[in-house]
Each structure stands twice: as structure tokens, then as C-alpha cells.
Design goal:
Layout (H helix, E strand, L loop, with lengths): L1 H36 L4 H29 L1 H18 L6 H29 L5 H29 L2 H22 L23 H13 L2 H16 L5 H22 L5 H24 L6 H32 L6 H9 L1 H20 L1 H41 L4
Helix pairs in contact: 1-5, 1-6, 2-3, 2-4, 2-12, 2-13, 3-4, 3-6, 4-12, 5-6, 5-9, 5-11, 7-11, 7-13, 7-14, 8-13, 9-11, 10-11, 10-14, 13-14
């Protein structure tokens, strides 16, 4: 029985790693392709991506609900094919309007694919193993992203239109192959709607919405690490430019090597809340270290300070990820995993959408006070997760008791 369960997990992991290879190359090259090759301005690219991820965060909930009702495997395959088509369509973008339209389509398909894959994982993996399996997949995904980023780096080295087009073709092909791999998974039965049941219950689940909001604040480390810190290093410190690459490599390698080990320590809601709190405090410490880097004058000393901060940050990142996976899986009702995962996962695209503008203003303009403010936000969100979890548990206990009391009522 165990071997039979392991095969779907391996297939799901292969699909995710395959798509991550193309994603890594795309992430490295896309902004430069649209500015240098297509001819859009940085402001236009930023606005288009903001609109795209804004639409995608909303579409992910609806597409996750579709996965619940129609079955997550079919929806995942459909979203993977649609994502591959959207990536391919970028090759024909020549105007800002068309770029915005295709960015919205791409982000919506990516969000829907993520929600359907999460629902697939829930349907294929035992409840007590989901967080560990999700951690293993994240570890492999980071490895795929790193390899893809190296391929994208080759395209940047050549800098030709043809090199960029090859990257987009690789991304589209990798997602198309992932769709084929996903089609080999066992079917997960769809859940029919019950009479009188509202379609998007997650929109009325206030505790889950609060946890999603707190998670959105916590994942601000994504644009922080990929957008703000490189600018901070160049503009506000004496660190050598290669420090940016060293920190990114450290982050990716750490997740590949240690994410599974960290996730093994989270097995219930109490552990998830505890790790969320630890994550917030670790990120507060990381922000304090990053703030100190502005005071150093020795390039090697500043580089060492920044790498120390990156170590604290990736520890917080791994603890936050493990806690958030446990929360999102455990608190989602049976039969509604797709829409709940789509809603919870919307925090990441919203953070990517708002993070660069917000964080660049706070940190690059305010300096040390901005770092401390951001660190305080991380700590507050992490510490607030525990009370939010207890609220969610209380509501679920009440929801479970009420039908029993109604059934036992003598008035019936």
C-alpha cells in the first residue's frame, strides 16, 4: 500500500520540478526581454505585472473552486496547458495593451494551477503527511528554479533576441511536459455541491481570511529578497556586487537541503502557530542585521554582515513555509481544498504585486528605521498567528457542535 501511495507523490513532484525549470529561466529573463527586446518601459512592465497578479490572485480562488467541483487533476492539466500557451503568446507581444492582457492570463493560469496542484496533493496524500510532502516538493522546486535560472543566465550573457526566445520556448515546453505528467496521476473525485450551500465559502471564513492576510505579510520576504535587497546592496552599502548572487545561492541551497527537516517538526496547528511565531522573530533579527550593513565601510565585512542576515532570513522563510502549509491544509474543510488553497495562495501574488513599491519606499527611502519597521511587521504577523489559529479552531468546534445539537433537539 505504501508503494502505491509513493508513486503519485513522485509523479506530482516530477511535474512540479519540470515546470520550475522553465519558471526559473523565465523569472531571470522576462523583465529584460519586455524592456530591451519588446521596447516597453520599466513603468509599463511594472504596471502590467501588478495588474496581472492582481487579477490572478482573484482568479485563483474561482479556479480552485472549479477544481473542487470538476476534479483537481483535470483542472491542473488544463491550467498547465493554458499556462504554456500564455508563455508562448509572450513571443508575439508588441504593445503594452497586449502585454497587460497576456500578463493577466498568465497570472490567472499560474494561480489556478497552483490551487489545483495543492488540491491534488490533499487528495493523494494522507493528512499527517501533507506538510512533509509539500516541503519535499518545495525543496525540489527550488533546485529546478536554480537550474532554470542558470539557463536564463546564459540567455542574459548572449543578450540576443533569439536567446530570449529560446528561454520562453523552454518555459512553455516545460509546463506542457508538466501537463502531460499530471495527466498520469490518479483521478481525485470531485465533490458535488450540497443543496443550499454557498459556492465560495472561503470568502465568509473570517479566521481563515485573517490567517491569509497574516501569511501575505510574512511572504513579503519574496520581493524583499529578489528586488529590494539587491538595490539596497548597490545603493546603500559598500558590499561587492557579487554579494547579491551569494545570498541568492545561499537561500536556494538552504531550502533544498533543510526545508524537509524543518517541516518534519510541524505536525499540528499548535506547532504551525509556534513556527510562525519563530519565523517572525527570525525575520525581525534578519532585518536588524540588514540595517547594520549600511554602517560598514569594509567591503568584506559588509558582505559578511549581509550573508549573516541572509542566514537568519532563510531560517525564518523555512519555518514560515512549514507553518503556513500546515495551517492551509488543516483548516480547509473537506471538499473545499481547491478554493481554500486558491484563497490562501493569493497572498503570494499580492505580495509580489504590492511588495516592490511598498518595500522600496520604506527601506530605500527610510533606511535603518524602514528595516526595523519591516522587521516589526514580520514579528507582529508571526506572533498574531497563534491567536488567529485559536479563533479558527473555536469556530470549527462550534460549527461541528451545532448540527449535533439540532439533531438531538426534541422539537424535531
Amino acid at each position: 500500500m505504501r508503494a502505491r501511495m509513493d508513486r503519485p507523490i513522485r509523479v506530482l513532484a516530477v511535474a512540479q520540478v519540470t515546470s520550475s525549470l522553465g519558471d526559473g529561466a523565465y523569472l531571470v529573463c522576462s523583465a529584460l526581454y519586455f524592456t530591451l527586446i519588446v521596447g516597453l518601459s520599466l513603468a509599463q512592465v511594472g504596471l502590467g505585472l501588478t495588474l496581472g497578479w492582481g487579477v490572478g490572485s482573484v482568479a485563483g480562488v474561482a479556479l480552485g473552486h472549479l477544481a473542487d467541483r470538476r476534479g483537481p487533476r483535470g483542472v491542473a492539466v488544463l491550467m498547465a496547458v493554458a499556462t504554456a500557451s500564455a508563455v508562448g503568446s509572450f513571443l508575439f507581444v508588441r504593445s503594452f495593451v497586449l502585454f497587460v492582457v497576456m500578463a493577466c492570463v498568465y497570472a490567472s493560469c499560474q494561480s489556478g494551477l497552483a490551487a489545483a496542484r495543492q488540491a491534488l496533493l490533499v487528495g493523494l496524500v494522507a493528512e499527517d503527511e501533507r506538510t512533509g510532502v509539500r516541503a519535499a516538493m518545495q525543496s525540489k522546486t527550488n533546485a529546478g528554479l536554480a537550474i532554470g535560472a542558470a539557463l536564463g543566465g546564459l540567455a542574459l550573457h548572449f543578450g540576443t533576441r533569439e536567446a530570449y526566445l529560446v528561454v520562453f520556448a523552454i518555459d512553455a515546453a516545460s509546463v506542457a511536459v508538466a501537463a502531460l505528467v499530471l495527466s498520469r496521476l490518479p483521478k481525485v473525485a470531485p465533490v458535488a455541491a450540497r443543496r443550499g450551500e454557498r459556492s465560495l465559502a472561503v470568502l465568509r471564513d473570517r479566521p481563515y481570511a485573517l490567517l491569509t492576510l497574516l501569511n501575505m505579510f510574512m511572504v513579503l520576504y519574496m520581493p524583499l529578497f529578489t528586488f529590494v535587497i539587491p538595490l539596497w546592496i548597490v545603493r546603500r552599502t559598500h558590499a561587492p556586487v557579487w554579494t547579491v548572487s551569494a545570498m541568492l545561492v545561499l537561500n536556494m541551497v538552504s531550502v533544498v537541503l533543510f526545508q524537509v527537516r524543518v517541516a518534519r517538526r510541524v505536525s499540528d496547528l499548535r506547532g504551525a502557530a509556534r513556527f510562525s511565531r519563530y519565523a517572525g522573530l527570525a525575520m525581525l533579527a534578519a532585518c536588524a542585521v540588514f540595517a547594520v550593513s549600511a554602517a560598514g565601510t569594509s567591503a568584506w565585512l559588509v558582505a559578511a554582515i549581509l550573508i549573516s542576515g541572509a542566514c537568519l532570513q532563510v531560517i525564518g522563510e523555512m519555518m514560515q513555509a512549514a507553518g503556513s502549509w500546515q495551517l492551509s491544509f488543516t483548516l480547509a474543510p473537506a471538499g473545499k481544498q481547491g478554493q481554500y488553497q486558491g484563497f490562501f495562495g493569493a497572498g503570494a501574488p499580492v505580495a509580489r504585486m504590492l511588495g516592490p513599491l511598498l518595500l522600496s519606499t520604506v527601506i530605500l527611502s527610510w533606511g535603518v528605521p524602514g528595516w526595523l519597521l519591516l522587521g516589526g511587521l514580520f514579528a507582529l504577523a508571526g506572533c498574531a498567528t497563534g491567536p488567529a489559529v485559536r479563533w479558527a479552531e473555536g469556530q470549527r468546534t462550534q460549527a461541528a457542535v451545532v448540527p449535533v445539537l439540532v439533531a438531538l433537539s426534541p422539537c424535531r
